[in-house]
Amino acid sequence: MEKIIDLRSDTVTKPSPEMRKAMYEAEVGDDVYKEDPTVNELQEYVADLFGKEAALFVPSGVMANQISLNVLTSPGDEIICERDAHIFHYESGSPAALSGVQLNPVKGENGIMSVEQIEEAIRPKEAYYMPRTKVIEIENTHNRAGGIIQPIEKIAETKKLANKYKLKMHLDGARIWNASVATGIPIAEYASYFDSVSACFSKGLGAPVGSIIAGSNGFIKEAFRVRKAWGGGMRQGGIIAAAALFAVKNNLERLKEDHEKAKQLAKALAEMKNIEVDLNKVQTNIVMFGVKKTTAQAFSRKLASYGLLISPVSKQSLRAVTHLDVNYADIFNAIEIIEKVQK
Ligand code: TLP
C-alpha cells in the first residue's frame, strides 16, 4: 500500500528507534514519591532551559494549561485570552468545569491581541458585581491563527500591563519550541514574561506523550498537588519522560526543517487557482489555506481518497501541519495531490 501522508497535526508522529531505545533503557522509580530519576532529570533540564526554578511533567498539553490556570486563579475569576485560543476552543470547557473560572476572549489580529484591547478587557477593581480579572493568557505559537509567532515586544508590553494591574501571565507554549527556533529568541527569554509556561513534547519534538509546566518553586509545589488531585500523578513515568528528554535534546533544532517544508508547501499552494493562502502567515510548521470551489470537508475527503490527510478547520479552510514523519518527497507528493484535487 502507498504511504499515507498525514498532515493533520504534528501530534501524529511515532517514536523513532533511537527514541524507543532511550525509553527501553530508562531508569525508573515511583514519581508520586518523586523518585523517578528520569522524570526528575527531565524536569530539571526543562526548568533550566526555560529559566524557571522548577518544572512538572504532566500527561498532556490540556492538563498543563488547566493545572496552571487552576493554580493561578480562584473560583469567580476571569482569564483574558485571544478569541481563537486553544484553551477557549479545544479544552472541553475545563476552565469553568475544573476551576470555576470564566474566559474573556478578545478578538486579536492573526491571534495577536493589542495591549489596548487587553487593557479594555480588564475589569474595574471596584466592580464587585463583575468577575475578577486574574490572568492574561497568550498562545505561542498560535495554533488556530496558523502557527503565528507572538512578537516579543508585544509580550513585553503585555507584561508591563499585567504588572500595572497586578495580573498573572500564563503562556500556552505547546509549540514554544517552534517560535524559539524560528526567531532565535531563547525559550527562557519568552518564558521570563510569564508566571507559568506549558509546553508539549508530543508535537513537533516527536515524543509519543507528555507535556511540561514550568514556574517558580511555589507555583510548581501547588501544581504538583493539583496534578495528583486530578489523577495525573504517574508512577514509573520515566519510560515516557525518557522519550521527552530524547526529543528535547535531539529534535529541537531540526524544527527548522519542518518550517522550511511548510513554506515549500505554502508556496506551491499559492500558485494554485482555487486555493487561497497568505504566505506572510506561514511562519512555522502550520499552513492554513482556503478552498474556493468546494467545502473544506469535501476537499479533505477527496484528499484522503488519494492518501493525503489534512483536517478542515472551518467551512472553507484547512490546516496542514509539517512534522518529522514527513519528508520532502512526501511534501512533493502532497502538492501533486492537492493540485489534482483543487482543479
Ligand atoms: N492541539 C491539537 C488539537 O487539540 C487542535 C493539534 O492538533 O494542534 N495548546 C495548543 C496550542 C495546542 O495546539 C494543543 C493541541 C494543546 C494545547 C493541547 O495538547 P494535548 O493535545 O497534548 O492535550
Give your account of this protein's structure.
With 343 residues, this protein is an alpha/beta fold. The chain folds into two domains: 234 residues, Type I PLP-dependent aspartate aminotransferase-like (Major domain) (Aspartate Aminotransferase, domain 2, 3-Layer(aba) Sandwich), CATH 3.40.640.10; 89 residues, Aspartate Aminotransferase, domain 1 (Alpha-Beta Complex), CATH 3.90.1150. Helices cover 42% and strands 17% of the residues. The chain contains 14 helices and 13 strands. It has a seven-stranded mixed β-sheet, sandwiched between helices. Helix 1 packs across helix 11, helix 2 packs parallel to helix 11 and helix 12 packs parallel to helix 14. The protein is globular and about 55 Å long. The mean pLDDT is 97. Ligand TLP binds next to helix 3.
